[in-house]
């Protein structure tokens, strides 16, 4: 029996983010990738994503980066239905004032017609240094272009309003995977250590040689971690 799996992309990301992880889940999961470009609040994004799980009594949910913020909102809205939770390259914290100001500055530039998606200048914050001059970098930029300026503006507005979740995630009572690229600069490993310490029984995984987008950088590693999360190896 396969587990319904709701996959949630990050800021300026679409279904391409998860594509190469899916073969590892054959036979154990029935994946569905949400579109998080249409709404300007996390509750609205989560509600739209939950619509994809209509008719499923229980389902697993995995989110990366902004998708992790939405995954926590899905848990808030439908905790009794969430059977497994995975938070990748994300944080339980709210924006700092400095982060919010950077987002506001980007919003102003974008509204002036200066939206550039992900440029080569921004790639070092997303990808491991070893992948900056590879075709994968072009795929990341193309993904951002597909999301476009209006999707970007909606997503930034949603992200800025997210709550600090650290006081509530101790109530999560399902198998939880906390994972990130070992060289993630945007949401560093320490933020994941913090979440793993707060969530009872959480499994903490690091992806070698990866930055902020390990599901694209090392899909075999991420796919294996997701498979073990949904179908843990039997001991003995």
What's the helix-strand series?
EHEHEHEHHEHEHH
Fraction in beta strands: 5-15%
CATH topology descriptor: Rossmann fold
Number of domains: 1
Helix content: 40-55%
* Helix-strand makeup class: alpha/beta
- The average pLDDT is 95
Rounded to an integer, what's the Rg over CA atoms?
Answer: 17 Å
Number of helices: 8
| Cα-to-Cα separation, first versus last residue | 23 Å
Net shape: globular
Uncertain segments: none
Strand count, sense and barrel status of the largest sheet are: 6 strands, parallel
- Secondary structure tally: strands: 6
Q: Can you list the strand order of the major beta sheet?
A: 2-1-3-4-5-6
Which CATH C-level class is it? Alpha Beta
How would you describe what is shown here?
α2 crosses α3 (66-78) and α4 (97-114) crosses α5. It contains eight helices and six strands; from the N terminus they run βαβαβαβααβαβαα. The protein has helices spanning 16-19, 42-51, 66-78, 97-114, 135-160, 189-198, 214-217, 219-230, and strands spanning 3-8, 29-33, 59-64, 82-88, 176-181, 203-207. It has one domain: Rossmann fold, CATH 3.40.50. The two termini are 23 Å apart. With 236 residues, it is an alpha/beta fold. The protein has a six-stranded parallel beta sheet, sandwiched between helices.
């Amino acid at each position: 029996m396969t587990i319904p799996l709701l996959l949630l992309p990050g800021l300026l990301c679409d279904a391409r983010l998860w594509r190469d992880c899916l073969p590892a889940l054959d036979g154990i999961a029935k994946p569905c990738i949400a579109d998080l470009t249409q709404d300007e609040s996390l509750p609205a994004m989560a509600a739209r994503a939950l619509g994809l799980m209509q008719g499923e009594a229980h389902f697993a949910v995995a989110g990366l980066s902004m998708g992790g913020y939405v995954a926590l909102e899905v848990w808030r809205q439908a905790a009794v239905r969430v059977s497994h939770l995975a938070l990748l390259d994300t944080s339980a914290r709210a924006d700092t004032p400095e982060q919010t100001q950077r987002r506001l500055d980007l919003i102003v530039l974008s509204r002036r017609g200066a939206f550039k998606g992900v440029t080569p200048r921004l790639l070092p914050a997303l990808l491991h240094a070893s992948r900056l001059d590879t075709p994968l970098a072009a795929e990341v930029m193309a993904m951002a272009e597909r999301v476009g300026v209006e999707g970007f503006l909606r997503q930034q507005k949603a992200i800025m309003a997210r709550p600090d979740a650290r006081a509530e995630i101790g109530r999560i009572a399902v198998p939880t995977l906390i994972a990130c690229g070992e060289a993630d600069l945007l949401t560093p490993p320490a933020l994941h250590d913090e979440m793993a310490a707060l969530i009872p029984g959480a499994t903490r995984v690091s992806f070698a040689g990866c930055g902020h987008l390990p599901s694209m950088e090392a899909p075999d590693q991420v796919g294996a971690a997701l498979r073990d999360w949904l179908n843990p190896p039997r001991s003995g």
